Amino acid sequence: MSTAELAGAAPAVVAAAAERAGRFSARHIGTDAAAQRLMLDALGYDTVDALVGAAVPASIHVQPRATSSIPPAATEAEALAELRVLASQNRTARPMIGLGYYDTFTPSVIARNVLENPSWYTAYTPYQPEISQGRLEALINFQTMVTDLTGLATANASMLDESTAVVEGMLVARRASKSASNVFLVDADALPQTKALLEHRAAALGIEVRYTSFADLSEVAAFGAFLQYPGASGRVWDPTDAIAALHGHGGLAVVAADLLALTLLRSPGALGADVAVGTTQRFGVPLGFGGPHAGYMAVRAGLERQMPGRLVGVSQDAAGHPAYRLALQTREQHIRREKATSNICTAQVLLAVMASMYAVYHGPEGLRSIAGEVAQKAEALAARLREYGLVVRHDAFFDTIRVVTPGPSGRVVERARSKGYQLFWVDDATVGVSVDETTTADDLAVVAWAFGLPEAERDVRDLPFGEAEPLRGVAASLLRQEDFLTHPVFTAHRSETAMMRYLKTLADRDYALDRGMIPLGSCTMKLNAATEMAAVSWPEFSRVHPFAPEADVHGYLAMIEQLETWLAEVTGYDAVSLQPNAGSQGELAGLLAIRGYHRANGDTGRTVCLIPSSAHGTNAASAVLAGMKVVVVACDEAGNVDLGDLRAKIALHAAELAALMITYPSTHGVYEHEVLEITQAVHDAGGQVYVDGANLNALLGFARFGDLGGDVSHLNLHKTFAIPHGGGGPGVGPVAAKAHLAPYLPSHPLSQRADHAGGFVFEGGPVSAAPAGSASILPISWAYVRMMGAEGLKDATAAAVLAANYIAARLEDHYPVLYAGEGGLVAHECILDLRPLKEATGISVDDVAKRLIDYGFHAPTMSFPVAGTLMVEPTESEDLGEIERFIEAMIAIKAEALAVAAGEWPADDNPLVGAPHTAESVVAGEWTHPYSREKAVYPVHALVRTKYWPPVRRIDNAYGDRNLVCACPPIEAFA
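^ Glycine dehydrogenase (decarboxylating), sequence as received from the core. Prediction below:
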């Protein structure tokens, strides 16, 4: 209601309007009642519920619940207060457990200007590189940092975590090795979570994991081997001979290396490694109970095309200037599907940016100094314990020592915990201690006391760790000689002023949700509210070790259980695991649960997975990694699963049918009315149904996957539940299942608890390095559900469906809407067919996407799931003004294309093929184009004061792949 309307309204009406305005859902949903009335009138429906009721098949409508586990919607203040209570139940101890996780200092300039900055955390994957140059440069810095420290040729733009990176390294070795062996050797001193993950993933692929100390490899044939450097026990040793012996058998060496240690130790490349993996967590990224953290992978020359994940490369734009873009994308799932290098279709961009900026902030000298101090602290503690008569297992170490205790080791761990310190219980006679950059001399003194050193005697504080000799026991041949981080970017931003301005410069080159709508179909780029984000930075959540004792993490466990319960209710499932730290990992976890269920029933021959031709490419890649054979099911002209073809495929593979993977609503953006018939046909043949949860934002509150016949699903918390995309990650992909599959959902060897919401015990094996995956961003989704309430979640779905149908209706006279359900309605997204435009005018989908940049928009999803189309998803968060601005831009672009066809502009020189236009392109030199400068950069008058200027012109992707450069170019390249 307007101010004038409120003034004349009855008191009850005023009170109701005020109540609505005070709800968080009114802030989250962009269209108010007046806007929705206008949109509904255009579509011919009386209410939003009537519209969604007509779109969603009546057979799957959820029945109202008498009671709900989701409490009534809280205000923002109430939600933050409840989170404060949960946070207070986490004990902010001093974690010295190690095992790949360390406390760290996040420079405040990075925390404020990256982690807490919506210009960075609300950006999308840089598939439109012209408007992603800032984060692409940050990722080039990340790749350069990793290649320099690992001594290998090429690094990717990050992995999900260290343990999953090790698995991906194993798969690279399997693809690249010429050995016929199915044996993969694993360091007996590997991290325990990595061992468990390797075993779980290898079993599905028929790979034999064999543990070894690498003492004698003269007669062991293996396609690859994994070495931990330094080991989980802290041991530093020289694996050069072991790697050479492995190469002699045709195997490849995968080395997990601590990047901070590599500032002092020889690089994996210098040791002969083929692949290096690990984590960048200790480069300024908070512990966060396990994540999100950016893993890394680097490979030797020749393995670039085998490498999974995203790879940033240097190309050039239309003016010949250097420009960044994603390279070698033909390796990815959406193109190669079941033949892809991996099922991972995300990265940990926001965390990779933080880690890279930590290196930019400290530079090579700063990193070496931090590493030297860490090594000195460890040596000072070891020396004091030895002096007291205790045995330290290894003489050569970096930051971790294993100490033999004269009595039960648990007593030492408990003494330390009584003073607020967490040590690692190794066994009944051994305790592990890891130090980091935050460790002080006082901390070392308390740890020494915990081991029984008398307080009255000289303690560690009397032996300044600066006097201890770092790496005292490490052989000279293992000390680093090579320089690293020699590019000027790592030395040019020493003052905070310079660092702040560098981060601001990069952010200004990007287009994120803080600038305008990102209408990406299948990606759900909705509001990431500031209140939802607030708790991520609280130390009670951010400085918690993933393997902390259960008694120290009651707040986390309570929040996780609540979120699991809420997600189970809204999806119609019985159990939920929040461990998968990406949608791809959730897919894999669901399929592995199906595999475990069939095997438990003796159905080892059930290995066929039916997948519709329209499905996400990750579906097929995940099925392969779960040990399944992909059989494609056709879709009909309306975009639905072809029931005839489905029944034929089921009959053909009845005895070996493991599962059907189906996305609902479909990848084409349509609610399939035969979904119950589809799932029943699979169940009748003994198969299980995996419902991909990517499009849950079109269903929440109106229907549930479990009621559709789904047995298991993954959800994307970074889509439906408001976790921001962070420029291409982090993500969270929980997996939810019915009771019969619940026992096979992910477990973890170091989990604080065995039971989950609903009382189920998960025994399936881990899919991520930490028990709760990317736990530190779970408060975002917790806050979203808590503040929306069940009704708010339903209202959000309705608003999203209304917005998509409004766009489809407004644009259908200009661009055909490719698929629609009954009544001509779409779900939460619509596919605009640009192929007729290309045929009539010569203007391609690429031209339209790049021209949208000139209008101030991020393009919709291009050519997926159908080549030559744009898939548009406005979400519920955009207001009517922004939706209308997009509609007007698309109509104006159509008119420009028709002008080309009419001969007003040449086919090779017009505003569309010249897009996007930079400021330089319209002010430097003579303007020789047949269209005006104003038409180029101000196609609508509203842009004159609010213009987003792309930093580069259209990028030549083919040039970048022909001339692959994936590290920081020399500064002269930008002269």
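The first strand starts at residue 94 and ends at 95.
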